[in-house]
Amino acid sequence: MSNYIDNLNWRYATKKFDISKKVSFEDLELLTQAITLSPSSYGLQPYKVLIIEDQDLRKKLQPAAWGQSQITDASHLIVLANLTNFGEELVDDHLNNVSETRGIPSENLEGYATFMKSKVVTMSDEDKATWTAKQAYIALGNLLSAAADLKIDACPMEGFDASEFNDILGLSSKNLNTAVIATIGYRSEEDETQHYKKVRKSKENLITLL
């Protein structure tokens, strides 16, 4: 655990990436596994993850991300897109997967299916979009921690125009919305922010033990 904390202290929101360094296929596979293993409410994973290496596509996206250099200089751009709307199929698809993976007859899951649908399918469209975006952020947290553990730099980013990202990536027609993005790669020696002391609230101000 001490190594994990050391790695979290090592990481920072990288502002300048070394364009000559790329994340290996093997490490990228580990990061995708970490994203896949992220917890989500009811295990539904109501989002999609786009891993973008193509430079031409990233150049198209860069103006929609306020021109930030990380979009094109990092090894990869990761887009976490939440479902904006869904019906009973979200629950049905998940429980079909549960049935196949765990060898449970689907009829044994009908009660749970009814319960889940009563909680998530009945939400308003606005609440659905808010809820699914929160789930995408959980996956982002897992990505950042896994990247730090592999000594891969990352920068979570909210500075972008979601509607423009959606248009360029064709997400709206798939009931998806760009919730948050992150760039991964390796820090440039010229990035002065890597030398800044990490600023956080004290444990006493942040955490209350009851």
Question: What can you tell me about this protein's structure?
Answer:
With 210 residues, the chain is an alpha+beta fold. It has one domain (2-86, 121-188): NADH Oxidase (3-Layer(aba) Sandwich), CATH 3.40.109. 45% of the residues lie in helices and 14% in strands. It contains nine helices and four strands, in the order H-H-E-H-H-E-H-H-H-E-H-E-H. A four-stranded antiparallel beta sheet has the order 1-2-4-3, sandwiched between helices. Helix 2 (25-36) crosses helix 7 (125-149). The protein is globular and about 60 Å long. InterPro entries: NfsB-like, Nitroreductase, Nitroreductase-like. Belongs to the nitroreductase family. GO terms for molecular function: oxidoreductase activity. Pfam families: Nitroreductase. This is Nitroreductase.
Helix-strand category: alpha+beta
Q: What's the CATH topology name?
A: NADH Oxidase
Strand content: 5-15%
The CATH superfamily name is NADH Oxidase
Number of helices: 9
How many distinct domains? 1
Main sheet: strands, sense, barrel: 4 strands, antiparallel
Spatial ordering of strands, largest sheet: 1-2-4-3
The stretches of 5 or more residues where confidence is low (pLDDT under 50) are none
> What would the average pLDDT be, to the nearest integer?
97
* Outline: globular
Keywords:
single chain; FMN; 45% helix; 4-stranded antiparallel beta sheet; 210 residues; NADH Oxidase; Nitroreductase; flavoprotein; NADP; alpha+beta
Q: TL;DR of this structure?
A:
This protein has 210 residues and is an alpha+beta fold. 45% of the residues lie in helices and 14% in strands.
